[in-house]
Amino acid sequence: MGAKYLQPSTVFLLLSTSFVVPVAGFTLRGCQISQGNATCHNLTAVPGYIPSRVRALDLSSNKISKIHQSDFKNLSLVADLNLKRNRVSQIDAGAFAYLISLKILNLNRNRLEKLGDNVFDGLSNLTDLRFNTNRLKVVTSASFKSLTSLKFLDLSNNKLHTLQKLNLILQNLPNLETLSVENNDITTFKSWELTKSSLRLRSLDVSENPMAVFRITEDIFPNLTWLRIGNTHYKKNMIWDVRNKTFLGQVSTLDISEIQMAFEDIKTVLECVNTSLTSLRMTSMKHSLTALINVSCTIPTMSTLQLRSNRLTSIFSDVFQLCINVTELDLSKNYIKKVLDDAFRPIQGLRILGLNHNKLLSVPSAVRNLPALAELDLSFNNITRLESQDFANLTKLRHLSLYNNLISAIKDDVFKDLTQLQYLKLQTNHITHLGKVFKKHLPNLRQLHLNNNSLTTITRGQFQGLQSLQMLSLQDNKINNIENGSFIGLTNLMEIRLQSNNIDKKALESGGFNVLMNLRRLDLRDNHIKYEDTSPLPNPPFSHLSSLQTLAILGQHRRGKSYLPGNLLQGLTNLSELSLRNDQILYLPKNFLIHTPKLQMLDISSNDLGDLSPDFFSPVPNLTSLYISRASLRSLDFLIDANLRKLVYLQARRNTYSVISKEVIESLPSLTDLDLQYNTFTCDCDNLWFLQWVKNNNQTQVFDAYNFECNYPSDLKGTKLLDFDYQSCSVDIDFICFIATTCTTVIFMVVSLTYHFLRWQLAYAYYHFLALIFDSKHKNKDAHYQYDAFVSYNTHDEPWVIRELLPKLEGEQGWRLCLHHRDFEPGKPIIDNITDAIYRSRKTICVISHRYLESEWCSREIQVASFRLFDEKKDVLILVFLEEIPTSQMSPYYRMRKLLKKRTYLSWPQAGEYTGVFWEKLRQALRTGEDPGGDRFLLTVRDAP
């Protein structure tokens, strides 16, 4: 169906494919593999076609409902298995037994209610198991017995009710270090309900449970350093009962966020960790935050205090008066509008301060009193201006975040004291000009983020003071002018992002990039750069960027068609990645890449190229990745002679070609990943080789090939390419063998039946044919007779011929006869002797008897003679019957029977009858002329039988 007529050469190709080793290829339904990692989508079961070499398997966000015992049979190398966001409700015992290398198993967000015995058999190397957000209620004693190496277990958001269920888990996990049972239905925590031996747990999360009692009477957590116990879902106060303060004496990080507990009990909790606590989180607390801070800050070892989402509006001077040892303070996600000048004066050692996601209108002057501050986060506030003294005295500040504010004005000397600053984030503000902000200060700045502002011009020397800068982000501004010398001083700059601005070819050719000698990455996508022809530029914009490795240019959206100057890339001798994506380019000059001999990645997608010349790729023999999607390409045949033997990845989506030839694939011997999605394929025999190649799982992965659709012929439009029945294109060997066998049998039967019933007729026809040949050879020769008659007889009748015929005709009447035993030429083929004898004699006398009719050679003699009679129209044949022979016995000799019906013949008289008349009539027959009608009346006539 849908197949074209096959030419002979195509048929030969199909017949010879079994003798040719093809380039290997493979595709996995719904799966992609990259660098040993497999990701699969749109599945209802674990696929059985994952290659055994895969080391990480991502099956997340599918509709898998059951894990069968043999699902992972050949995946012994997988170390990371992700099954989250499925519908798994059942796991067979031993389903993971083949995953002997597995270390991480993620079963989050499924529908598991029960874990049976031996469900994790074979996972002796597993270290990380995640069961978050299931419906787990039942756990058997042997569920986890094989997980002897497990260190991390997350059982949060399930339906575990009691510690007894938890104990069944813990008693088989001797090396467990981190356990989370957050948001289950555990109502009490009593240490005696757990295993009697000490646990090696270092981290425990029992928060968000309706826990009425937290009671520890034994030292079962000697190694615990991280504890979270908040219980928002329980509206009553939880009872805290830790009999000995040393039972939690190793806890260094404590999270009591949203805890429902009496204030005095909270103090008791903090007393339990008084000698070890270093980090305390109190998010969304119900009690007086100031009182909680005062209690917390009395712990001499505490250095990190997180107070997120506590609805603070102001920070007064007495809030942190006891927090002299705090070095990290997180006040994010509050409603802070006001911070008093001396609010942070007590915490002179503060190194990290988070004030992000608040309502600040300006930089709080209180931060100037923090000489040790190294990180300050003021992002997501309402700051509009940066004043000269905002960051005074912050000489140790290294990270400053001011993004997502309303900053429109910056004083030139605002950063004068930030001599150690390395990271500055000013993106997503309203900055229109920079003035002299970066001309003198920030000598150690490495990253500057100014993207998503309203900058229009980069003036000469604007970043002159940033001699250590390595990354400059200016994308998503309105820059349309780059002055010559704009980047003076940026001698160490390695990356600059200028995409999504208003840069045109004039700004590009201004010479602004010439000083960036160490630049490695340059992004100029989505600007207004457009060229009307391919004429060489007098001053190529990148001629001094010999260190540049990655360049993305143009990428304009719906700004009309464009060309590229032939020398645009001049100077980029070390370029390895080039993106010309979405440029609406109509033509690429033949020698465009001659300046980039080290190019490895080329993206020319989303252009209007139509066709490409193989010579275009000649200067880049080391190309490993090529992107040519949406390039209006009508064929991939240019790859045949492009010499891209090192190409590993090819993306060629959404073009107009419909056939992928064998020569294209074989010209890319290193290809491992091929992406041809969303093309318009032809479902006929022209794509037969490609279809067969895709299904040979070995080297090249064809992404999403199972979803390739037919566009031609019309009756197959919308069907899947790999569902096309290509059997109609190939020769069915089994069918051919069946036909051949059948024909052979039929022919054998016909021959057998014919021989049995018509052997004489066939024999006569054969000799008839031979006689015809010999007659045609001799009938036109001039008549020159050596004999009066040739006598044709059977050897059994030779006595009659010798005793009766020969004496009468030669002895008495004087005729010269030709006898085969006497006159045939020795060594000459018999058939030639017969033919010559008949044509050298005026007459042929056939002495016919039963024996004569059975003789092969006699049959040939009478056939040659009869051909001479009828074809030459001469009366040259005399029939002498020695015996009475019924006509039925002469049926196979059709010509003789025909003779008998139309002519007279002589019969040898019966015993005792007078023979004189016979010899006289024979003499007269020999004397008659060669006219077939002459002298017939002289013969004694008898009716033909």
What does this structure look like?
The chain has 945 residues and is of the alpha/beta class. Among the domains are: 57 residues, no CATH class; 152 residues, Alpha-Beta Horseshoe (Leucine-rich repeat, LRR (right-handed beta-alpha superhelix)), CATH 3.80.10; 150 residues, Ribonuclease Inhibitor (Leucine-rich repeat, LRR (right-handed beta-alpha superhelix), Alpha-Beta Horseshoe), CATH 3.80.10; 184 residues, Toll/interleukin-1 receptor homology (TIR) domain (Rossmann fold). Helices cover 18% and strands 16% of the residues. The strands form nine sheets. It has a 30-stranded mixed beta sheet, with no helix packed on it. The longest helix has 46 residues. 38% of the residues are buried.
The helix content, as a percent range, equals: 10-25%
User: Over all CA atoms, what is the radius of gyration?
Assistant: 53 Å
- State the low-pLDDT regions, or none: 1-25, 931-945
Q: What class do helices, strands and sheet pairing give?
A: alpha/beta
The major pleated sheet works out as:
30 strands, mixed
